[in-house]
Design brief:
Blueprint lengths: L26 H14 L5 E3 L4 H6 L13 E5 L3 H13 L4 E4 L3 E5 L8 E4 L1
Parallel strand pairs: 3-5
Antiparallel strand pairs: 1-2, 2-4, 3-4
Length: 121
């Protein structure tokens, strides 16, 4: 993947956090994430991008997690204001699968899952 197209992100931001080296981020996901970041105009700090199966289990992810296919990212977020900015920007960029946690926002565009869902962690 040509990371030059994603001006606000570097490839290592999306590496599997267990050190295995997996980074299979999907280009259509990354284009949409970059669009959301541009709209939001605030930094997106990535807690989790690509995951191998072991890391996904450690993180408590579901067995068919969008992270496994490089179609998801968890963005660190701890304030209500930034949460609103990120969610609004994500929706404007076309994300319709959004999970909201106390300290992060999950975005994915996994086309094998229900396309219009919002959930809480």
């Amino acid at each position: 993947m040509n990371w030059e197209h994603y001006e606000n992100f570097e490839d290592h931001n999306f590496d599997c956090k267990d050190g295995c080296g997996k980074n299979n981020m999907n280009p259509s996901f990354m284009r949409r994430l970059q669009a959301a970041r541009t709209i939001a105009d605030i930094p997106f700090y990535i807690n989790s991008g690509s995951r191998c199966e072991d890391n996904n289990r450690e993180e408590g992810g579901v067995s068919d997690s969008a992270h496994l296919g490089g179609r998801a990212a968890d963005i660190r977020c701890s304030t209500s204001r930034n949460r609103a900015i990120i969610i609004k920007a994500a929706m404007m960029a076309g994300f319709t699968r959004i999970g909201i946690g106390n300290t992060f926002i999950h975005l994915d565009n996994d086309h094998t899952k229900d396309p219009d869902v919002y959930w809480l962690y």
